[in-house]
Amino acid sequence: MTTTEIKTNDRTAAPATTVRLNFAKAAPKAFRAVIGLDAAAREGLDPALVELVQIRSSHLNRCAYCLHMHTTDARGAGESEERLHMVAVWREAEHFFTERERAALALTDAVTRVADAGVSDEVYERAAAHFGEQELARLLALILTINTWNRIALATAKRAGTDER
């Protein structure tokens, strides 16, 4: 099996040996569109919440590049190491996160894994109880955007620690 073949038994791919393409240069209009969506999604959301959502989605998608970038950004913004370590197990570490953050993380899990079970009414209603309609729409856009960034990074074999923004 080569390093780019998919293992069918666990649906994970071995890391590619080289970066495959520079998405920003190869598709500049598409890249700028994702940047625009990202900026619009973040508008008015708490920066700490933005990083938690991006970290959680990157965990679920196994995107080391984005995980490294967003944990670095979160630390730079003053996020504690304790909370950063607990994002992966947020359900079991509920006292580290507010109800609002837990609602956002639950929505992040559901949207990121939408093919598994969809977004339940319970998860949606929990998020809607903590976020107004416009803020909830921006949160949803944020989750969609980080999933897009994760897929771009994974598909193009971006390397964690290179932080090429």
Which SSEs are present, and which pair or pack?
Layout: E1 6-7, E2 12-13, H1 23-26, H2 28-42, H3 47-60, H4 64-76, H5 81-86, H6 99-112, H7 114-117, H8 121-130, H9 133-155
Antiparallel strand pairs: 1-2
Helix pairs in contact: 2-9, 3-4, 3-6, 3-9, 6-8, 6-9
Please give a structural write-up.
With 165 residues, the protein is mainly α. 62% of the residues lie in helices and 2% in strands. The protein has 9 helices and 2 strands, in the order ββααααααααα. The protein has helices spanning 23-26, 28-42, 47-60, 64-76, 81-86, 99-112, 114-117, 121-130, 133-155, and strands at residues 6-7, 12-13. Strands 1-2 form a two-stranded antiparallel sheet. A hairpin with a 4-residue loop joins β1 and β2 (12-13). α3 runs antiparallel to α4 (64-76) and α6 (99-112) packs across α9 (133-155). The radius of gyration is 16 Å and the shape is globular. The two termini are 32 Å apart.
